[in-house]
C-alpha cells in the first residue's frame, strides 16, 4: 500500500521534557553512553491512490506540525518498513 | 441591552456549561455556538471553553482550529470581536495564530489540577478591566499541556507591550516560560488564559469568587463600546 | 473470499490473565514475568510454522477447522473436537451446551457460551451468596432499579434520580496500567449511561504493592495517568478514592472505579429488546480485535498450538469517542428514540445481544457483516467476542431509525443497524438469537441459555488454617510507646508511611472542578456533588475498604468497610440511602478464599440490614492472586447519601473563626 | 553526531484514536484521498560514542515501547536527516 511517513520533531531549541525524562532514567538501566534523547511523532499516511508527497507536505504544514515549535520531514515509506515488528 | 456572549461547543469541549454559567452569573445573556455552524448569531463576544476538543489528539487545539465556526471567529477577532480562550480555548487561539507562541506538555509530564495564585499583569484588555493592575487572584488551574513557549523575541515583545495578561505566583504549575498564565493580542480584544476563571465564580464550588472579574470585565467593556 | 491471514499469520505471544478471559484464570507470575512473556522474542512461532487450516486460499468458507463453522456444518460433524477446555469450560458445562443446542456448538456459539458462562459474566461461584443482598435488604421505595440492572437507581426527589456503581479492572491494569485503568473508567461510565443518566463524577479506590517495589513504579503512575486521562477527557470530576499499599497486591493491583450519574426519573432506560420488528443498532467505535485473546484459540487448526496464536487482551480506550457517545445517547433519550439500551463491556456483542433479548424474552436476527469493523479480516467469533470499547447497543422502532442515525451523525459517532428483534417461534416461549455471516448461519441459540441458565456452583468453603494464628497475634500484645520520645518516633513513622501520607501526587492529576458542581472533593472524607442548582439538592459518596481487617475477620471486615463509608457520608450532613460494592478476592476454587468471600458477603448484607440501606449493585472480581497466594480479601464499599441542600454540607477541617470565638472539639463514641 | 532512531508504532490491530481523529479531520482541509493515518513516536537517541543498535533495542524494549500494544524498529539515522527541517 502506498504510504508516506511524516516525521515531526520539536525544534532543537524547544525543551523536550519527555525525552529528558527518558534520558534521566537510562543510568538506572545501566546505560551511560547516551547524551540526549528527543521524542517526536512518526505519522504514517496511507493514500487511496499514489502516495502524494506534495499533498503530504501540505497536510504536515497545516495540521501535523506546529511551525512555532516543530520541524517536519516527509518521505515515501521504505517498502515493508512500517509493518516490520521488532524483535 | 444585555450583552450576548457566545460559548462555543466543540466535540470534546468540557467546561462549556461552566463558562456559560459564569457569564450568566456576571449578568450576560449566553448563546450556545456549535463548532459546525459558522454563524455567530450576532453575539457581542465569544468564549472558547476548556476541554479536550477532538480528544486533543495530535496537538491540543490543532484540529479544532479548522472547525467552521473558527473561520468566522478568526475574522471577527481580527476586526475587534472580543474573544476569551480558556485552557483548551487558549491552545486553539495559538494554533489559529490569533495569539503568538504555543502550549506544550507540562514540564513535569503530568496533568495538574490545583488552586493557583495569579497576578493580573494587564488590566487593559477587554477581559481584565475589572481588575486592578497587579491584583492577586486565586483560581483553579488544570491542564496537561499548559506550558507556554515562544521565542525570546516574542516573549520580550509581549512583556514590552503589556500583553502578558496574567502570571503564576507561588509556584509555576507547568513550566511556562516567564511564568506566563495568559496573554493578549495587540488590540487587547483576544485573550488566552490557561487557568479557569469560570470555576471560581461561586463560593460553594470554587476556591474563591476571583474568576468572576473576567466576565464582568467583558460586560464593562461592551457597555463602553457603542454598538 | 475471507482474508484470513491476519488472524492466523501473526503469531502472538501468550496472553496474561484478564477477568473476562476464560476461567479458571491463569494468574500472571509477576509483573516482570507477565510483561516479559508478552514481549519475549523467543515465544512467537514463525508464521510459516502455524498451520492455517490448509491453504487458506482454497478453503471453502464452511471448511472446518480454521474456516467458517456454520450451524449446518456443526450438525453434520457432531464428533469434531472443540477447544472448550482451553476456553475455560468444564466437561459437564460443554455437555450442557450440547444438550441445550441438541448438537455441538459452532465456533461462534462456543465462544459465546465460554464468555457468558465464565466467572466474570455468570457469577457462577458468587451467585448463591449474593442473593443475601436481596433477601436481607430493607424495603426501599427510593430504589428504581437494583441488582441485575447495569447499575442501581435511587430516586432523590420528585423529578430526579441518581445511579452509581463501582467496578473492577484489576487484571488489565496490571498488564497495561495506563490503558487498563483508562478502559476501567470507560466501562463503568457506560454502565451509568445505559441507565439513562448523565455521568457526573468518578471515584477510584486503588490498591498497589509495596510503595518502594520497583514494579509499583511501573503500575502506579500508569494507573493514575490512565484514570486521569480518561476521566479528565470525559469531563467528569474525580471526587475521591483510595490509595493503599500492601505487599499482598504486588502481583495483583486493584483498580476499582466508581461512577455517579443523574437522570430525570422519567428518562430511566432499560435493556429489554422489546417489540418484534424493532431494529438493533450498534452505536459507537468500530469493532476491532480488542480483548479477544481468549477466543483466538478458535482460529487455530489444532488446539494445542492455540496459545501461540492468542492475542493480547488489551484494549485501548478512546475517551473522545466515549464523550461523543455520552452526548449522542443523552440526546437520543431526550428525544425518546430508544426502546432499550445496553452498554458493551467485557463480553462485547455477545453479552449485549443475549442480555437484551433475554430480558425481553424475544428473539433476535443479526447480520454480522453489518457490524463496522476496524479490520476487514475479522471472523464471526471474533466480532462476537470483541471487547472494543466505546460501544452501545440500541433497540429502536423502525420509524425512528432515521432520526437515530441523524443524531449519531451530528455527534460524529458511527452507527449501524445490525439486526432486528424477532418474536417467539409459535407465539410461545422465548425467541431465538439467529446470527448470520454473509448468508451463513453461525449462531442459533436461545438467548436465555447464555444469560440465565449458566452454571451455578456452591463451591466448597473452609476457614483458612492460619486464621486462628493470625487472630491470636492480637494488637494488645504489641509493644506500646512508653515515653514521650517513643511516642514521637511512632508518630513520625506513621506520618511517613505511604498509607497515611498525603495523596496529592495522585489527586492533583484529576480534574475536580469540571461541570462546576463539586462541593466537596479530596482531601475530604466524602465527595459531595450538587445535583440541582436551583434547590441545592445533592449527594455525598464515599468508598472505603480495609483488606487487613477483612483478612483477620471477613465478616466484620466487610461490615467495617460499610460502616466507614456510611460514617464518611453521614459526617458531611447527608443521609445515607444506598450501597454499591466491589468484592475483590482470590480464586473461588480455593476453599479458604471462598469462605472469606461468603463471610464478607454475609457481613455486608447483615450490616446493610442493620443500617437500613440496600445494596443496589456492584461487581465481583475473583482470581486476584499470584500463584497460590491470594490478595487480602478486599471488599470495597461505596455509600451514597442525599443532602437536601448542599449549602448545608459540613466540611472536614476546623472552621476558621475570628476573634476569641473558638470552636469546641468533642469526641463522640467510646 | 552518531544517532539512532527508534520508531514506535501501535500494533496494527490496536485502536489508534489519534490517527483516526486526524484522518477524520482531513476532509475539512480538502484532503479526500487519504485512507488511513497512524500516529506513533519517533525517538532519536544520541550516543556519546558509536551508535549502539543493541543498546538502543534494549532501551526501546524496556522504556520506549510497551510490547503489549506496540511494535518498534531501530536503525542508525541517515546522516543529516534529523536536523533537516521542512517548511
Ligand atoms: N485514588 C484516589 N482518587 C481520588 N481521590 C483519592 C484517591 N486516593 C485518596 N483520595 C482522596 O484523598 C483524600 C485522602 O485520602 P486518605 O489519606 O486515604 O484519607 P482517609 O484516610 O481519610 O480515607 C480523601 O479525600 C480521598 O478521597
UniProtKB/TrEMBL annotation, chains A, D:
Enzyme class: ligase
Pathway assignment: Purine metabolism; IMP biosynthesis via de novo pathway; 5-amino-1-(5-phospho-D-ribosyl)imidazole from N(2)-formyl-N(1)-(5-phospho-D-ribosyl)glycinamide: step 1/2
Coiled coil ranges: none
Enzyme Commission designation: 6.3.5.3
Organism superkingdom: Bacteria
Pfam families: PurS
Alphabetic keyword roster: ATP-binding, Cytoplasm, Ligase, Nucleotide-binding, Purine biosynthesis
Protein location: Cytoplasm
Entry keyword Transferase: no
Catalysis: reaction(s): N(2)-formyl-N(1)-(5-phospho-beta-D-ribosyl)glycinamide + L-glutamine + ATP + H2O = 2-formamido-N(1)-(5-O-phospho-beta-D-ribosyl)acetamidine + L-glutamate + ADP + phosphate + H(+)
The UniProt record lists the keyword Ligase: yes
Principal subcellular localization: cytoplasm
Family statement drawn from the similarity comment of this UniProt entry: Belongs to the PurS family.
Complex formation: Part of the FGAM synthase complex composed of 1 PurL, 1 PurQ and 2 PurS subunits.
Described function: Part of the phosphoribosylformylglycinamidine synthase complex involved in the purines biosynthetic pathway. Catalyzes the ATP-dependent conversion of formylglycinamide ribonucleotide (FGAR) and glutamine to yield formylglycinamidine ribonucleotide (FGAM) and glutamate. The FGAM synthase complex is composed of three subunits. PurQ produces an ammonia molecule by converting glutamine to glutamate. PurL transfers the ammonia molecule to FGAR to form FGAM in an ATP-dependent manner.
NCBIfam families, A to Z: phosphoribosylformylglycinamidine synthase subunit PurS, PRK05974.1
Protein name per UniProt: Phosphoribosylformylglycinamidine synthase subunit PurS
Source species: Plantactinospora mayteni
Chain's gene name: purS
Automatic annotation (TrEMBL), chain B:
Catalysed reaction equations from the record: N(2)-formyl-N(1)-(5-phospho-beta-D-ribosyl)glycinamide + L-glutamine + ATP + H2O = 2-formamido-N(1)-(5-O-phospho-beta-D-ribosyl)acetamidine + L-glutamate + ADP + phosphate + H(+); L-glutamine + H2O = L-glutamate + NH4(+)
Keywords: ATP-binding, Cytoplasm, Glutamine amidotransferase, Hydrolase, Ligase, Nucleotide-binding, Purine biosynthesis
Pathway listed: Purine metabolism; IMP biosynthesis via de novo pathway; 5-amino-1-(5-phospho-D-ribosyl)imidazole from N(2)-formyl-N(1)-(5-phospho-D-ribosyl)glycinamide: step 1/2
Location(s), subcellular: Cytoplasm
PROSITE patterns in the record: GATASE_TYPE_1
EC number: 6.3.5.3, 3.5.1.2
Chief subcellular location: cytoplasm
Active-site residues from the entry: 87, 196, 198
Quaternary structure (record): Part of the FGAM synthase complex composed of 1 PurL, 1 PurQ and 2 PurS subunits.
Function: Part of the phosphoribosylformylglycinamidine synthase complex involved in the purines biosynthetic pathway. Catalyzes the ATP-dependent conversion of formylglycinamide ribonucleotide (FGAR) and glutamine to yield formylglycinamidine ribonucleotide (FGAM) and glutamate. The FGAM synthase complex is composed of three subunits. PurQ produces an ammonia molecule by converting glutamine to glutamate. PurL transfers the ammonia molecule to FGAR to form FGAM in an ATP-dependent manner.
Protein name as annotated: Phosphoribosylformylglycinamidine synthase subunit PurQ
Gene: purL
